[in-house]
Amino acid sequence: MSSNTHFTPLILAGIAALCGLSVANVYFNQALLPVFAGAMSIDAGQTSWIATASQMGYALGILLIVPLGDRVAPLRLCRVLLAWTAAMLLLASQATQLSFLAGVSFLICMGTCIPQVLLPYLAGLATAGERSRVIAWIQTGLVIGILLSRAIAGWLADHLGWHSVYWVAACVMALCALVLPRILPQRHAPGIPVAYGRLLSSMLHLFWHEPLLRLSCALGAAVFAAFSAFWSVIAFKLMGPPHNMNATEVGLFSLWGALATLLTPAAGKLCERFGTVAISLASIALCCLSFVLSMAWANLFIVLLACANLLSFALQLGQVANQTRIFSLSPESRSRLNTVYMVCNFCGGAFGSALGGYLWLRFGWTGCATLGLLCAVLAMVALLAILRPRSKQLSVV
Asked: Can you give the residue range of the structural domain that contains 23?
């Protein structure tokens, strides 16, 4: 397959849009948590379980489904996942209780692992020199989907009720299932002759024997925990004094973070120029800075806007660096490498969402921001600890 033929900007833009629309299902409920609290007469700590269930469902979907990308044609697998997600979204629109909505959110997000099926597939088609650029395109779509989903969900909830968000999302997934064959060229999967059980168990072997995979997992989980802690409680922060926003305004706040995604293609070029270690260091430093600023000036709206932007770009930098690193390890195992990385990533996200909600109830914004800062500091310590004895090894990836 020629990369000049199949990785035109138009093709990559279409795939990035598909990935963004898919991953939006994991995150749009974060803008609705205060709405759920009012509609179901529950507190902020309880609503955080909806976000946590979503991320855990996504992680389990990645763990159980994405490894099939080493065996099954991506087009067929993605169409099945899109149909499943659409059906579960319609079911969620009928929810009246927290437990039911959290359970169905878990099932929705199990099927929303489509971007993680496509990422290793497309990375395998890319040349080594353009791999970072391809990953950066897809990461741009993912983060735009994450951030715009909150804005759109907030607007729909204010004007049509929260049930309408799920109806619209179901229709979008059904449309994506129809459009997908026109965007994604159908190619045969590698067809590794390994039983499904052995395919799953082989991921433990990869994790144990690939130090760069373990490093990427640790960095990704820590930064994503910080990112999730911020976004799981920011709606409560903005809806309370002194900001007193409504759901639409909270959703629009997320649009500021979307500006950072305009820089994501540059992240791919920076990664190719300076290496993954330097980009990982920059990612963690920006994450630390965003939480320090938000703790110092939590009641200044402009500071929170700036922090959202910094944090989004930090996440983008880290993801591009980490996935460039792991996709260089073993060409025949890219889906499983990505599975291990993303499961760790979203377990970190679930941890950040759950603990962020708890700390918000106990200590307010200071507790949540402290959690984010600690996660970033731990990531920095881990990277520096491994970098010292292995600087020559790490500098080449």
From this structure: 3-181+195-394
Nearest-CA neighbor of 260 among 313, 304, 311, 224?
313
Task: Write out pLDDT tens, residues 111-151.
Answer: 999 998 888 888 777 776 677 778 888 888 887 887 788 88
What's the CATH code of the domain at 90?
A: 1.20.1250.20
Q: Is residue 287 part of a domain?
A: yes
As for how many domains the chain has, the answer is: 1
What are the pLDDT digits (tens) for 345-381? 878 988 898 899 889 988 999 999 999 999 999 999 9
Annotate the chain with three-state secondary structure: CCHHHHCCHHHHHHHHHHHHHHHHHHHHHHHHHHHHHHHHCCCHHHHHHHHHHHHHHHHHHHHHCHHHHHCCCHHHHHHHHHHHHHHHHHHHCCCCCHHHHHHHHHHHHHCCCHHHHHHHHHHHHCCCCCHHHHHHHHHHHHHHHHHHHHHHHHHHHHHHCHHHHHHHHHHHHHHHHHHHHHHCCCCCCCCCCCCHHHHHHHHHHHHHHCHHHHHHHHHHHHHHHHHHHHHHHHHHHHHCCCCCCCHHHHHHHHHHHHHHHHHHHHHHHHHHHHCHHHHHHHHHHHHHHHHHHHHHCCCCHHHHHHHHHHHHHHHHHHHHHHHHHHCCCCHHHHHHHHHHHHHHHHHHHHHHHHHHHHHHHHHCHHHHHHHHHHHHHHHHHHHHHHHCCCHHHHCCC
Cα separation, 250 vs 150, in Å, equals: 8
pTM of the model: 0.76
Q: Is residue 117 part of a domain?
A: yes
Task: For residue 358, tell me if it sits in a domain.
Answer: yes
Backbone angles phi, psi at 236, to 5 degrees: -65, -40
Cα–Cα distance for residue pair 265/283, rounded to 1 Å: 15
Tell me if 368 is assigned to some domain.
yes
The band of 223, judged by pLDDT with boundaries at 50, 70 and 90, is very high
Residue 171: band (very low, low, confident or very high) from pLDDT cuts 50, 70, 90: very high
